[in-house]
């Protein structure tokens, strides 16, 4: 395959920043285990506490609270489960609609569906890559009716119970404007903070602006527990309910098995939490390294025409989980992806917009122009915690 000069230059620039030879294989995001991971996991195995009982789950939750500033953290099996529980605890009921960005990982919409509700797709903003609040405002003026029990969609007659902004690749959305909007329309705010552990909006950690936020610790996220997630909240009642619902709604008792509702087996196992404890110790270094890497990419791409690198907003402090390169019209995205893949350099296009997925294409949606533009323009470039 012949490759254009623009594409060649992009690949060369990426390689120059991450300082690897022309043939070295580079993943998009590999986990790093250089701390106490082995020690804590060995402790689980040596003591036999690998599953639903053990000290590491509590310890991991306290570390998350300390780091994010949340009053409470509840560790669960994955980020999707965390979102599911957040939606249930926010009072989302079967037949409700929940506003979600179309430009997100499929889990955001799936969690809505698990709760019996219907995803309602909203457009995103060029500047934040997250929900376009101004556009949502205009849209709601058109379709929303306020009733005594909340906001209704006048086209479908369904209640719009919640909105789930997502902090894309660690970049915080314009959450203050969104809060104003949801207050006006009596819509619950739940943050999909799956990608934004270590990202702040005006000094406050993402995930803490609504009632609850959901974090993911999947293998490709900024820290990993193998698989895992957490709910963070400042509301003690919600935290208690989240713990209860994610531990099969069992009433605590020394020997009796009594459950007061249909709960979920969503508790994070101790062995995963052990990995998480070690990863939390390294998190500040990961963030430092990622911010450093973003800076290096930024200066290297300054002189490459036709592309630019995403930079955090002035009110944001991002974890730069995955770096984002915008491709101008002169660059062929697919040629670039293919020639990079051929030489072992992993670049990745953004997700297919959710409103185009077969199971969601009948769902309500606003006009989604920016989503469709960004979907063609954005690629992620290697961003692992050891590359910085
Ligand atoms: C990773 C991710 C999730 C889900 O997390 P899992 O732990 O994989 O279930 C949800 N939303 C977004 C935006 C994600 O990136």
Automatic annotation (TrEMBL):
Taxonomically, which superkingdom?
Bacteria
Q: Recorded E.C. number(s)?
A: 2.6.1.102
The enzyme's first-digit EC class, named in words, is transferase
Pfam families, per the entry: DegT_DnrJ_EryC1
Tell me the InterPro entries matching this sequence. Answer: DegT/StrS_aminotransferase, LegC-like, PyrdxlP-dep_Trfase, PyrdxlP-dep_Trfase_major, PyrdxlP-dep_Trfase_small
Report the transmembrane regions from the record: none
Q: Which UniProt keywords apply?
A: Aminotransferase, Pyridoxal phosphate, Transferase
Q: A GO molecular-function term, please? A: GDP-4-dehydro-6-deoxy-D-mannose-4-aminotransferase activity
Give the family from UniProt: Belongs to the DegT/DnrJ/EryC1 family.
Name the chain's protein. Answer: GDP-perosamine synthase
The gene is rfbE
């Amino acid at each position: 395959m012949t490759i254009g000069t623009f594409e060649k230059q992009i690949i060369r620039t990426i390689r120059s920043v991450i300082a690897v030879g022309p043939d070295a294989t580079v993943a998009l995001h590999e986990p790093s285990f250089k701390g106490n991971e082995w020690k804590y996991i060995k402790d689980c195995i040596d003591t036999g506490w690998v599953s639903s009982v053990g000290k590491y789950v509590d310890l991991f939750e306290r570390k998350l609270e300390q780091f994010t500033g949340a009053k409470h953290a509840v560790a669960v099996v994955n980020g999707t489960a965390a979102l599911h529980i957040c939606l249930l605890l926010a009072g989302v009921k079967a037949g409700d609609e929940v506003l979600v960005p179309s430009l997100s990982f499929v889990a955001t919409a799936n969690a809505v569906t698990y709760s019996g509700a219907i995803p309602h797709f909203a457009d995103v903003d060029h500047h934040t890559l997250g929900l376009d609040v101004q556009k949502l405002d205009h849209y709601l003026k058109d379709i929303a009716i306020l009733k005594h029990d909340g906001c209704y969609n006048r086209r479908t007659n369904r209640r719009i119970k919640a909105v789930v902004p997502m902090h894309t690749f660690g970049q915080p959305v314009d959450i203050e404007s969104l809060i104003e909007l949801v207050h006006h329309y009596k819509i619950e705010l739940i943050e999909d903070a799956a990608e934004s552990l270590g990202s702040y909006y005006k000094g406050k950690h993402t995930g803490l602006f609504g009632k609850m936020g959901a974090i993911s610790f999947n293998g490709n996220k900024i820290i990993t527990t193998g698989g895992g997630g957490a709910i963070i909240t400042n509301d003690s009642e919600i935290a208690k309910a989240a713990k209860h619902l994610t531990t099969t709604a069992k009433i605590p008792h020394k020997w009796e098995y009594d459950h007061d509702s249909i709960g979920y087996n969503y508790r994070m196992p101790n062995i995963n939490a052990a990995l998480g404890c070690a990863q939390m110790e390294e998190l500040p270094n990961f963030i430092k390294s990622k911010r450093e890497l973003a800076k290096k990419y930024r200066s290297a791409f300054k002189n490459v025409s036709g592309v630019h690198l995403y930079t955090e907003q002035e009110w944001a402090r991002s974890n730069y989980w995955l770096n984002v390169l915008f491709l101008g019209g002169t660059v062929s995205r697919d040629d670039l992806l293919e020639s990079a893949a051929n030489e072992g350099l992993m670049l990745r296009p953004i997700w297919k917009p959710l409103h185009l997925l077969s199971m969601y294409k009948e769902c309500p949606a606003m006009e989604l122009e920016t989503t469709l533009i960004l979907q063609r323009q954005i690629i992620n470039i290697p961003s692992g915690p050891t590359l910085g």
